[in-house]
């Protein structure tokens, strides 16, 4: 059924806009022969402030998770990985969002006072926490894209992400401007957390590399990209 739909779609279009390389690969595998262009989501990066930066290991890093408290988002993985790094007493893990696993996740984190649940917040409040955070943890078991990765980049966070997230695969070169971890691997997330907390120079290097992408996640950049295609 999908192949029949794609075959008919292929006859009626000049271009196919896809959200990320994962989507492009899927459509190509179903037989699309027309030009396929990567046009991901975009954000208003003027809302975000990338100037905040931790200065030393002693200061402790602020880690942030933002998303629904459901199984797919993998917040349990973030909590378990963070708890494996108890030696870093000044670090914090802030968790934004609500959902069906809230009680279970709070129980999981109850023996670590560094973990704080902020609940469901309006987007303007979420932006404020992005701007205060040093590292964004995104352990999602699967995400077709993941706009929060773009928000993290715009706010100057270093991203530690699952390798099963479309935005992370497109935007992150692991160990250059962030870290990709195998999906559901608590040990890889724990090691990544440890690495950034114990090596502030590496954190700053990744932060600077990530900030070079800020213009590419903006709505203006994406609009120009689309207009160039229409005018070609």
Description:
This protein is of the alpha/beta class. It is built from 10 helices and 8 strands. A 6-stranded parallel sheet has the order 5-4-3-6-7-8, sandwiched between helices. Strands 1-2 form a two-stranded parallel sheet. The longest helix is centred in the last third of the chain and has 13 residues, at 186-198.
Net shape: globular
Taking the alpha carbons of the first and last residues, their distance comes to 33 Å
Adjacency order of strands in the biggest sheet? 5-4-3-6-7-8
Mean pLDDT: 95
Q: In percent terms, what proportion of residues is strand? A: 5-15%
Report on the biggest sheet.
6 strands, parallel
How many domains make up the coordinates?
2
Helix/strand-derived class?
alpha/beta
What is the name of the CATH architecture of the largest domain? 3-Layer(aba) Sandwich
Order of helices and strands: HEHEEHEHEHEHEHEHHH
Q: How much helix, percentage-wise, in residues?
A: 40-55%
| CA radius of gyration | 19 Å
> Care to count the β-strands?
8
* CATH level 3 topology of the largest domain: Rossmann fold
Low-confidence segments, ≥5 residues, pLDDT <50?
none
Highest-level CATH class of the largest domain? Alpha Beta
CATH H-level superfamily of the largest domain: Glycogen Phosphorylase B
Number of helices: 10
